[in-house]
Fold:
Amino acid sequence: MMKNVFNKKQVALFIPLLLSACGGGSFEPNVIVNDDDPVPPKVKKEYKPQENDNNGNDNQAGNNSPSSIVTPHLGQSLDIVRRNQARYKNENGELVRLEDDVEINVPLNPDHIKTITHEVFPEHKNFKYIRIGIKDYQKFARTESVGKIGKETVFRQGASGTIYYQGDRTAKELPKQGVVSYQGDWFFLADIKRDRLESGTFYVAEKEYSNPNTYSEDVSRTPQRGGHTAHFTADFDAKKLEGKLVSHPRLPLGQENVKERYHIQADIKGNRFVGKATAADKEDLYLHSDSEQLEGGFYGDKAEELAGGFLTKNNSAFIAFGAKRNENAVDTEVVMDALRINVDQKEDFAQFNLNSFGDVNKLVIDGQEISLLRTNSRFTEEKEVTLPSGDKVKVSVCCGNLDYVKLGLIDHTSDRYEPIEEEEIEEEEIFDEEDFEIANDDSSSAEDGEQVQGDHNKDDNNENATNSTENNDTIAHNHLKPKEELRYTPFGKSLFIQGVRTPVKEMPQNHQVDYQGTWQGYFTKEKSPMLSIAPQDSENGNRANFKVDFANRTMTGELQRQDGIKGEEIKIEAKIEGNGFKGTAETGAYGIYLDKGNTQGNAVVHFKTETQGGFYGKNASELGGSFYSHDPKVGVVYGAKQVEQK
Structure:
């Protein structure tokens, strides 16, 4: 067995960084307020500006419209149910079916519809961003029985499986204008009715032992004559989605084999849509009931695909559908941002997309919404939730004076990890004690709003056996492997930023505007400690200041550290593109000192990297952006609000 050479001095390098925020005087600017804008109070519980962003996101800082009754989600699933056909002899010697009232007619149970979170469902060959179908389908599944033969109390036969739809990578851009068409597939699961009468050759069985479903119908399976096909047109000008779900019965060539089952009408709201489905044939054997609870969304960076589903009013059918855009070359406009930057010291810093349902006050982790609404008057606020998977998520969200862009830190932990056995640790993962002597320098400092990672235990020789064991456990849990693959957000710490963009047609054209705000960042390099910069609202805190010239399409700014010492700032220069900007972020003459006391010699980083972001709210009232670097490791998010020109 390989010897574990970790010691207590090295434990400090793995202690999670704590996020601190400094109070003090507020930098709350004099905000430019339009006559038709609500005036957000400085302190208000769960503040929600009431306006429409013309991207279909009603009340983008908190949607309370009637259509929001239908909760957005990345997907749903429902298991096929098999009817209990158990029989026994009564006192007259007759065979009688058990539980006649329950098991002969079995409606679908809305409580059994599952919202998909971290699970990964099978791919569909026609789609890249959505998954749809019937998982683990068996037409003749294994019989389930309890009791003696002929006297069973449980006896179930028939098909088994799970109908589902699932999307990933929610759309951040939507077609600018006009009508766009989508085409795809749909699947259904109907209730159980033992004595359904067969109607023609379209339906397979007179008596179903389990829920009738897509595969119960005798449809053409050839691409030319379809099967169950979905057809949609999305009018992004009018914010309307229309569609139809069609079946193609297997009929002799020359006979019309198109049977419309549902007509769909929905309102497009950002990258989501909500609406209703109307049954085309009220006498249809399975699909005869309407629904007013249809919900779905667009997926892929540029809304290349869509997916959704609905349950009918009388719980007689559950439908899942998905489709792919027919047009390849479509002009799009960015309507929202949602991203994270990994800031785990032992990993490469990198940027990833987050899923978003278009509400700036709701963070989506593993398909689960986490509210970012303010519940107190503090500048930053911490949230802690447990996901359906059992994972723990802590979120620190900033800033109290920003309504249309949110930023902060996500700390995602899980018990679904198990330690790697000691002998599995590769040789190069064994750290040399000499390389990490900097962790034991007691002269390192951390001022308010800044934290340096290090070991502050001065007397290692006085550590008792209990503490040694605890330290070894800390080290062991840094070598982990997943028991199962997660679909969405990986574990660890990440900075995040999200917001709903100002429509391009509403961007200022001839103004020069100042913005004022704050920023949050993490910095480190090889054999150096990690420095964290926390967002602050104090006058001398960590500040973000920008000058934006909308006429010349330019933006300049600085991210300043506490006390604003010249040479320690990060300079930003960018060009405005549509409703966003792109440029560079570069350290000043002194760089960023990882240990401000300069006790570790060369513990300073210099970098020049790309930054990008967007404008948010009416008349671009707020802005936000981010940047990152691999070497040195840098991750930063920033946000700011317009200030009144005097």
About this structure: The CA atoms of residues 416 and 484 lie 8 Å apart.
